[in-house]
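REQUEST FORM: STRUCTURE PREDICTION
Request ID: SP-0412
Submitted by: Lab K.M.
Chain count: 1
Length (residues): 326
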Amino acid sequence: MHLSCGFAALSALFSVVSSSSLNFNLSIDYPPSSPLQIRQNSYFNEHHYYWINGLQPIWTTPQRRDVPQELRDQIDRAIAAVINLPHYFWTGTLPPNQTRADSVQWRTRPRARLEGGTTLEDALAGISMPEWTAQDAQAREIWTYASNAFANTTTGDAYVFRGEWWRSDSTFNNEEFHNLQANPSVPRIWEIRTHISYQEPPTLLWGNNDQAASNSKLRYQTSVACTIHASHGEFYRQQSETTTNYAEASPLGFFYGGQRSATNPGAYTYSMVSDAARDRPSQSTMSNWVTTHTSFDARFPTETSTLPSDINIPGIGWVPYQTACP
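STATUS: Completed
RESULT:
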C-alpha cells in the first residue's frame, strides 16, 4: 500500500515537470585554454530544480558539469575543427520507435556529409565517448557538454532532422535549440521532418523569413535533388522524343527530370520536389510533374558529359555545379 502511494506521488511529480516550461539562460564556463574560448559568453538552457514542500520547484545555480578535463579538451578540439562546416542536429525516431536503430540520426548523418556538413556524432568520431543512457548520469553530462559546445559554435544556418516521434524533453528541445537561438552567428534554424519512406522539404523553425531564407532553402533543395539525380554517377537526360524524363528512386521519393529546357536552350530540366508515388510513372506524368513543380536547369560541358557544368537555381541564377551540389 505504501509502495503504490509512492509511485502515485512520483507520477504526479513527473507530470508537473513534463508540463512545465523550465528554460533559462546561464553562462557556460569554458576553460581559458579551450579552443572554444571564442564562445566564452555563450549560453545554455538546462533544467535545474529542487523540490521541497511537496511539488514546488526551487531554482538553483547549476554546478560545473562533471566532465573529465582531458575529455573536455578533446571534445573542444574536435568541435573547434568543424566550426566552419554546416551543423546538423537531430531529434526523435522512426517507426517502430523501439530501439536505437530507429533513431533519425542514421538519416541525418549521411545527409550532413553529402551537404559538406557534420553532426555532433561525426565531429566526435575520433574520441572515445561513453554510450548515452538515461541511467548513466556522467554519460549524460558529457554528451550534454558536447551538445552545448556544438550548438554554441554553429555558424550560419542550422538544420535539424525530426523523426515521427520525439520527446518534449529531448536534448535538442531542451539544450541545442535554445543555444542556437542565443547564438548570434545563427540566422535561421531549418527543420526537416523525416518519415520512413520520404523526407519533407525544409521548413523554417526559427529565424528571419526573408529573401536570404528563401535562397537558403532553394540552395538546400537543389543540393538534395542534385545528389539524387547524380546517384548513379551521372545525370540522365533526354535522348529522344519518346524518352524525355527519368525517375530516380530515393528515400525521399521519386525525383524526375532530364527533359530539354523550355527556357534555356541546350540545358535540361530536373525536379527539386520529390513524388511520394510508389510506382514508376509514365513519361507524361513525369513531364507534367517537372513542369508544375519547382525545378532547376542544368547545362553540360559537352553532349557526352555525364555531369553538369552549372546549375540554374530558381531566383538565384547560374551557379557552378560544384558550388550548387557539393
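NOTES: The longest strand covers residues 188-193.
Reviewed by: T.R.
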